[in-house]
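Hey, resending since the last one bounced:
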Amino acid sequence: MNLKNKILLSLLFLIINAVVYLVTEENSNNVINNELDEDIQTLETHYDILLESQKHISYSLQKSILNNTDLIELLSESYTSTKEEQEISRVKLYSQVIEQYETAKMQGVLQVHFIDKNNISFLRMHKPSKFGDDLTDVRTDFVYTNETKEVTRGFSQGKTTHGFRNVFPIFDKNKKHIGAMEISFSSDRLQWYLNHVSNIHSHFIINKDIFDINAWKRDDLILKYEKSAESKNHMIELNKTHTQKKCIDENTLRLESIKNEIRLNMSEGESFASYVKFNKNIIIVSFLAIPNIEDEVLAWVVAYQPASNIKLILYDTLIMRIVTLLISLLLIYFLVQQILAKQKIEKQHELFDKILNITKDILFITDFKGIKFANDRFKNIFCTRENEKCINCEKNFNVLDLFVVANGFLHKELLAKNEDFISLLQRTEEKNKIVSLLDEYGEPKAFRIHAVKVENDEDYLISLSDITDIKEELVATGKKAYTDNLTKVYNRNKFNEIFEEEILRVQRYQHPLSIAIIDIDRFKDFNDTHGHLIGDEVLITMAQSVNSNVRNTDTFARWGGEEFVILFRETDVQTARTVSLKLKDAIQENIHPIAGKITGSFGLTQYKEGDDMKSIFKRCDDALYLAKENGRNRIEIL
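The structure tokens again:
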């Protein structure tokens, strides 16, 4: 081989691997960045939901205090009364508010605090013995509300603690401004919500410079702080969920490799996310910036979530590069052999090989009982797997065994009685003539299949064109079309498609089939009482509960509104009832922090001969109505 060919082959090898490296690098970076952005967006969404909930709680509590106590009268009189009279007023106001305050604490309220228009503390409900101090230099939110007479909401630091504060101006009956009322929530409430409702493992860290104590105390609550693993300049509150070992010791080890990246990003004061490799796992670490009312970032919500998609894309990228390296080596080797053997190959044989082997399609001749001829693409797939016998030219081999049995593809289980594959192919629409095969790496690929009869023979020339990329795009588009946007389970369209396919299987093989409709009990009350955001949380919680407990063989989907449906494959109604009982129990174990207990009623029925979708769902609806009439949170069968 001459020097020119060696140089050209070396350049080809470098170019192929360089192009694949750059393309996979860009693709993996795009996927990773999308995953990180999505994680931050999810964290922001749940954070906004909680703030909205706290806004409604504080507004309701403020209205209740104003309407059911002598606050306005007592605060108005404090400007002209003696210290003894003010003390009497404080005791009176405390006795009037204490019951509401105790109830509000169960909803996450940390403090209720009353001040006069000069920013002087009148009464702290969590510490009634401390009053009379001037908060002008400490609490900018009090100063702002007393100056503008407007409501102030946001994260703020006080003398000894921080919180998500709602400060309301107070006016007397003559609309004269007389002071302000603070209703605040602790970061502990935010952590509890994200961990227990949103299922996002997270904690809250605060700039250490904004307070000079390590613990804040209320009669029923002690908040303890230690230096966080994420930043030496930030403190974390420790409790039963967020322990020293879990949140500081373990996270310090996890974050060692990205601590400089975290420090730089935190210094910019913008929300961000990164990922870290630790103990063969990959974790997304998201930092949600929490600014105060002056738009200074004083705290962060830090969330840790497993990054299965990032792990997958990094693994796929590595595999792609390794495969490219091997293929390019094989390609170079093949080219070298072609060059060396070029003069020895007969012209006709050269032309024949070129026709068969330059195509990316799989070509082979078969009578479906064995392989009589196959091109290199076929051999590369079926004759290179480790520890597997090459099937090329085997006489007693069923070609249909190559085709993977999967929905949306042609395979042997679709054959009618005494029907051959060619007949199945002929009665199939052109767009649906697709089969799935496992490639040389054991990965399923999609191929469009064509069959041409060899003249004067029982053999057929089969060509398989790889359309995996197109099929994957269609599947991805279909997944979006068949997934409910809120609950992330199948929607009604997908369920109808699966149901129609399953009806055909039941009619053919006489397998049992059962259907259940689930309705969330008193869902309208959740929406009317707590708003649609809480209603959406109830729907998500219920869907996650069922989806994580339903069997792998069953199909779970949102039917519409607060109704969901389950298809129990090859299951009679009594077995379906046993499964439904477990699902019903799993649903009622969910206690929403605002809406309360969640339950569901089940209507259950089994397929009967002659049934169609309308008739079987009519029985399900009747059974569901009976479950509602008989007291809800139960299962009825018709």
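Confidence is low (pLDDT under 50) at residues 213-218, 385-389.

Sorry for the duplicate.
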